[in-house]
From TrEMBL:
Domain of life per record: Bacteria
Alphabetical list of Gene3D superfamilies matching this protein: NAD(P)-binding Rossmann-like Domain
Keyword Oxidoreductase (UniProt): yes
InterPro entries, alphabetized: D-isomer_DH_NAD-bd (IPR006140), NAD(P)-bd_dom_sf (IPR036291)
One Pfam family matching this protein: 2-Hacid_dh_C
Record flagged with keyword Oxidoreductase: yes
GO molecular function: NAD binding; oxidoreductase activity
Residue ranges occupied by any D-isomer specific 2-hydroxyacid dehydrogenase NAD-binding domain in the UniProt entry: 105-283
Protein's organism: Roseitalea porphyridii
Name of the protein: Glyoxylate/hydroxypyruvate reductase A
């Protein structure tokens, strides 16, 4: 029997020790390395990556597949030499559930006036806002109806919110008011009191959350001007435009988990804006124990002659 293919773990920006330990635990019969054995290492069949060093994958002649550690894959395409092999998205119930928890938390926080009451607590002010709409009177619009968006939509509906969804192409989702393409964006924004962004970062979506987008958002609703929640990618948003939209009344509030540059600079005015909630890219933390097992299962299935699943569409960019 042929020796199972080796795995390259290539990450930058954080300590990969936990991922390396989990790979060794889940795949004891495989060689796991953080560096190829010289240029053209023929033993490496799979790469598990996050912001891999540019060019490192293109020198592996027997590379069969690339696995992303995170839900997004734009970090892989920043390597101009990424080879033309299948790219597998990170898909696990744990990752999906964590994202839905974050979305539900932020939606409820804005719905139930959390930012206002935290400010009042800091100032020791006792003042109830009696203009509290019911969930059934509020529509949450989700930009991106992939696996994460669909799960969040289902859980928000269980809480009684109306849910609208926007996607690049037409989709039909039970109980969700769906819109698609550029032609459907105005209709989506016209009904959305809270806009949740879960879009992938692609050339088509880069900078979408900017002045032209905010100018089309709902101005009057049960919560006042619409609220923005971005748990997608930092490259989707223009932070100067978010601040301007908050000041001119196009946006009522914002919860931001991702930023154009991370960590967010200490000098950013977003930190101290009274209607901005900041979290440190923590919406859906990638946990090795949850994400490594399905990767190994895919590798084993592939070696049995079965097709890879959850593949990235290179043309679409996600």
């Amino acid at each position: 029997m042929a020796e199972p293919g080796a795995i390259l773990l290539s990450v930058t920006g954080f300590d990969p020790a936990a991922w390396l330990e989990e790979l060794k635990r889940q795949a004891p019969g495989r060689r796991i390395v953080t560096e190829p054995d010289g240029d053209g290492d023929p033993s490496i069949r799979y790469a598990v990556v996050w912001k891999q060093r540019p060019g490192i994958l293109n020198r592996l002649p027997n590379l069969a597949a690339i696995f992303s550690i995170g839900a997004g894959v734009d970090h892989i395409f920043k390597d101009p030499e990424v080879p033309d092999v299948p790219i597998v998205r990170a898909v696990a119930d744990d990752l999906t559930e964590r994202m839905s928890e974050y979305i539900v938390w932020q939606v409820l926080d804005h719905h139930r006036k959390g930012p206002r009451y935290r400010r009042q607590q800091a100032d020791r002010v006792w003042s109830e806002d009696r203009m509290q709409p019911a969930a059934r009177d509020v529509t949450v619009g989700i930009l991106g109806l992939g696996l994460l968006g669909l799960d969040a939509a289902r859980k928000l509906r269980l809480l009684g919110f109306n849910v609208a969804g926007w996607s690049r192409t037409e989709k039909t989702v039970e109980g969700v008011d769906t819109h698609a393409g550029e032609a459907g964006l105005d209709g989506f924004l016209a009904v959305s009191d809270i806009v949740v962004c879960l879009l992938p970062l692609t050339p088509a979506t880069e900078g979408i959350l900017s002045k032209p987008f905010f100018a089309r958002m709902k101005r009057r609703g049960p919560l006042g001007p619409a609220t923005l929640i971005n748990a997608g990618r930092g490259g989707l948003q223009n932070e100067a435009d978010i601040l301007a939209a908050l000041e001119n009344g196009w946006l009522g509030a914002a919860s931001l988990d991702v930023f154009q540059t991370e960590p967010l600079a200490e000098t950013s005015p977003l930190w101290t804006h009274p209607r901005v909630t900041i979290t440190p890219h923590a919406a859906a933390t990638s946990v090795p124990a949850a994400l490594i097992p399905p990767m190994i299962a895919q590798m084993e299935a592939y070696e049995r002659g079965e097709p890879l699943t959850n593949l990235v569409d290179r043309q679409a960019g996600y």
